[in-house]
Each structure stands twice: as structure tokens, then as C-alpha cells.
Design goal:
By secondary structure, the chain is an all-alpha fold. The chain has 4 helices and no strands. This is Asparagine synthetase domain-containing protein.
Length: 64
């Protein structure tokens, strides 16, 4: 990371991270004109386990 970016990130007050009760509020505000409404409004995000689960569902193991 570049020093100016790191300094900016460290300078953001922690209470602004969840403005309006929404996680990642600063990033959502910064990219509001680029993100679809569904992304801006969501309150949770899938993790890597959902990707793995869908891969197993698509490619079930066959009995030998």
C-alpha cells in the first residue's frame, strides 16, 4: 500500500465505518454511483464457504 492511502485509512474515525448502521458505509458512499442498488443496500455478504458449497453441489462425488 502507498503511504498516503494507508494514512487516509488509519485516519478514518471508526464510528464512520458503520454510518447509518450499515457496514462499510464509507466505501458504499464513495462508490454509490457505480454500485447496483442491491449491493448498496445489502446487510450481509456471502463468504468463501458458499462458493465451495455451490461447487460441491454442481459436482457431486460419484460412488466408486
Amino acid at each position: 500500500m502507498s503511504q498516503p492511502l494507508l494514512e487516509f485509512c488509519l485516519g478514518v474515525p471508526t464510528w464512520t465505518w458503520v454510518t447509518g448502521g450499515q457496514n462499510r458505509a464509507l466505501a458504499r458512499a464513495a462508490f454509490a454511483d457505480l454500485l447496483p442498488r442491491s449491493v448498496l443496500d445489502r446487510t450481509s455478504k456471502a463468504g468463501p464457504d458458499s462458493f465451495i458449497r455451490s461447487a460441491f453441489d454442481r459436482h457431486p462425488r460419484r460412488a466408486s
